[in-house]
Design goal:
3 strands, about 325 residues, about 75% helix, three-stranded antiparallel sheet, Rhopdopsin 7-helix transmembrane proteins
């Protein structure tokens, strides 16, 4: 195999090998927490749905990129292309919406306890799944047009306004349709990225204020509770920062391609790699920064070890609230 193709195949397969188990681990562990504790915190609900959206991104896009990189051709027919592209567009859009919701929700949680903020804390926390459901239906409606303009690659001349996506083509047919769709969905993405950035800036501001105000104070229950909230805020900020960096690199390259008369396939592959990296890297960030997952993992591992070794010494592994 050509070294260049081998490098590309290794890159995409790494995203698959890390991303699928990583996101499945997040989903399964939070499901385990739900079973054990009979409830799941709103933030962890959001993280579960984020992992689900990212898993769908990998299944619907990165796997196909990996197979194409090793030389597998003509894999999908028209119906399969419609399903795959529609799934990818919706799951990618949901990943953006849920990350934005995560940052806004955390911003509300650590905001001062005024009448307005307290009301928002109660309403948003109680209706997290309802908000995500509304986003889901909205994304399904917005991207339903993909079903009508997507087909498998054919040995025939396509229009100048066709996106070639590995095994499938998305043909906008006219320049007006191409520009309108591209502009609307770019603005939609930037709207949610702007929201998550504004929320993250506010989180940073609150964190700095918190450090100045309660530095060295760790004795009271309230300070411990606040400390946990601010640690969670740092985790959310790290996750948002990862998304914004990858989103910025992806869109910078996209802007650069607009200046070229002929875009190299290698450049498109790099863009796809960057755009898909968030789906693979985010579960790593979630696990490292989420104590609930670590306690759940220790519980599972400890229980299995005790059963395996025949130990029955009355030791109980607790999951922190």
């Amino acid at each position: 195999m050509d070294p260049h193709l081998l490098l590309k195949a290794i890159g995409f397969f790494l995203l698959v090998i890390i991303g699928i188990p990583g996101n499945m681990f997040i989903i399964i562990q939070f499901a385990f927490v739900k079973i054990i504790e009979k409830k799941l915190l709103p933030t962890n609900m959001i993280l579960t749905m984020l992992a689900t959206a990212n898993l769908l991104v990998i299944l619907s896009r990165i796997i196909l990129q990996s197979l194409n990189a090793v030389g597998i051709k003509d894999l999908l027919d028209d119906s399969e292309c419609k399903f795959v592209i529609f799934t990818y567009r919706v799951s990618r859009a949901m990943s953006i919406c849920i990350t934005s919701l995560l940052s806004c929700h955390q911003c509300i949680l650590i905001a001062p306890s005024t009448k307005v903020w307290t009301y928002l804390k109660q309403k948003v926390s109680q209706n997290v799944m309802a908000i995500i459901t509304v986003f889901s239906f909205l994304m399904l409606l917005m991207y339903s047009y993909c079903i009508h303009i997507t087909h498998a690659k054919r040995n025939m001349t396509s229009s100048f306004y066709t996106l070639h996506l590995v095994y499938c083509d998305v043909d906008f047919q006219t320049y007006t349709s191409y520009i309108i769709n591209g502009t609307l969905y770019a603005l939609w993405d930037f709207l949610f990225v702007t929201l998550m950035m504004l929320a993250s800036f506010y989180i940073v501001y609150i964190l700095l204020q918190h450090e100045r105000t309660v530095k060295g104070i760790r004795s009271s229950d309230r300070s411990q509770k606040n400390s946990a909230e601010y640690k969670a805020s740092r985790a959310v900020f790290l996750l948002v920062a990862l998304y914004v960096i990858l989103f910025g690199l992806d869109n910078s390259m996209w802007a650069y391609t607009l200046t070229l008369s002929n875009v190299s396939p290698d450049l498109n592959d790099v863009r796809i790699f960057l755009a898909s990296s968030y789906a693979t890297l985010s579960p790593i960030v979630i696990y490292i920064t989420n104590p609930k997952l670590k306690h759940s993992w220790k519980y599972t591992f400890g229980e299995r070890s005790s059963l395996k070794n025949g130990e029955n010494n009355g030791l109980v592994f607790s999951i922190s609230k």
